[in-house]
Specification:
Blueprint: H1 2-16, H2 22-41, H3 45-62, H4 69-91, E1 93-97, E2 111-114, H5 124-134, E3 136-142, E4 147-152, E5 156-158, E6 162-171, E7 177-182, E8 186-187, E9 190-191, E10 196-197, E11 215-216, E12 221-228, E13 232-236, E14 250-254, E15 266-270, E16 279-281, E17 287-289, E18 292-293, H6 327-344
Antiparallel strand pairs: 1-13, 2-12, 3-12, 4-6, 4-10, 4-11, 5-6, 6-7, 8-9, 14-15, 16-17, 17-18
Length: 350
């Protein structure tokens, strides 16, 4: 109790020092220091109580009490906690999600896709549990009449942290304009649905049958997709202040000084080339550093070059396969190609 009283008295003295007279400041400092001496000297309980009573009396006469002291204390604690968290994030460790799957299977980024016709998007508590515990979210919009998509507006912020996007339809039975606001799936600050008119080819494959003035029947899915947030990292912002990066380490870098790409993105990649090295890609799609070929025997490139180079893959017509991707990435690219062909021919990709 005595130690806490000294702490609180010292804090209030520092807060109100500019409003107190020199005599009041000196009297308070004397009472605080006297109580601290009694605690350090191991005085008996009676003298300690006298020191506490003297400090309480001096403080009540000289210091101005605050309104709602409990609330003020809680606000101070919260602000202090925020300052500590921001300091750690700025100078030591920064949490970051992985926006793409380009580093699979080492790191799994955000993945998305349309649900099959037999699959249903969860709602209510089930959707909430999947979103917050498993990082899986769904976006589902169903036609309520004979609707034709006119356009999708660009996403807008709501309450600073949330995004909304408006889809505009025409009801062909009533000739009314139908507007629907949804929370679009986002990646690197952009909507995965795209935006623009239905005839502009700027909408993504997640807006089903958005081409050729397609008419959605009642109960037909307009959007029916699933998004998984993937892995999250704690980025070390401290170590590279004292040493240079090593080959094979996973690094995060900004694009501010790189021409030709978006200037406000972060890239997560495995470091392959170091300064003053000669880097090229061999005929087998392996990196060659200063004439030395990298393969699965070079740590930590085991997973990078873990695919079976002898595996035969039957390619669809007009498709290409570099041989430098794992089968999961290949299947993802192949599925995207199939969906694009389906849309061109007026077929529901799902």
């Amino acid at each position: 109790m005595a130690a806490e009283l000294c702490h609180q008295a010292s804090k209030l003295l520092n807060h109100q020092r500019d409003q107190l007279s020199p005599g009041a400041v000196s009297e308070l400092q004397e009472a605080i220091e006297n109580l601290r001496l009694l605690m350090r000297s191991g005085s008996d309980r009676k003298k300690l109580k006298e020191g506490v009573a003297k400090l309480e009396q001096t403080g009540s006469r000289k210091l101005t009490p605050y309104r709602n002291p409990g609330f003020r204390e809680n606000v101070e604690v919260m602000l202090f906690a925020v300052a500590i968290a921001m300091s750690v994030r700025t100078f030591f460790f920064q949490p970051m999600g992985i926006p793409t799957g380009s580093m699979q299977p080492t790191l799994y980024g955000i993945t998305e896709g349309n649900l099959d016709q037999a699959e249903s998007a969860p709602t209510g508590v089930g959707a909430w549990i999947q979103h917050y515990l498993a990082g899986v979210s769904h976006c589902n919009l169903v036609s309520e009449g004979n609707w034709q998509l006119i356009s999708i507006k660009a996403p807008r912020k709501k309450f600073r942290f949330f995004h909304k996007q408006q889809l505009i339809f025409q009801d062909l039975d009533t000739k009314n304009t139908i507007e629907r606001d949804i929370s679009p799936p986002m990646n690197t600050g952009k909507s995965m649905l795209g935006h623009g008119s239905a005839s502009s080819n700027t909408l993504s494959e997640f807006v089903l049958n958005s081409h050729n003035k397609y008419i959605y029947k009642p109960g037909e899915n307009i959007i029916k997709m699933r998004r998984e947030s993937g892995d999250h990292l704690l980025v070390d912002r401290f170590t590279y202040n004292f040493r240079k990066p090593n080959r094979g380490e996973i690094i995060v870098f900004e694009t501010k000084t790189i021409d030709g790409i978006n200037q406000d993105l972060f890239y997560i990649k495995r470091l392959a080339g170091l300064p003053n090295e000669t880097v090229k890609i061999g005929d087998d799609r392996h990196l060659v550093i200063n004439g030395k070929r990298l393969d699965a025997t070079n740590h930590p490139f085991e997973l990078v070059y873990s695919f079976d180079v002898g595996e035969e893959v039957t390619l669809p017509q007009d498709s290409h396969f570099s041989g430098h991707v794992n089968q999961k990435v290949y299947q993802q690219v192949l599925n995207e190609r199939r969906m694009a062909v389906a849309r061109q021919n007026g077929v529901d990709p799902s």
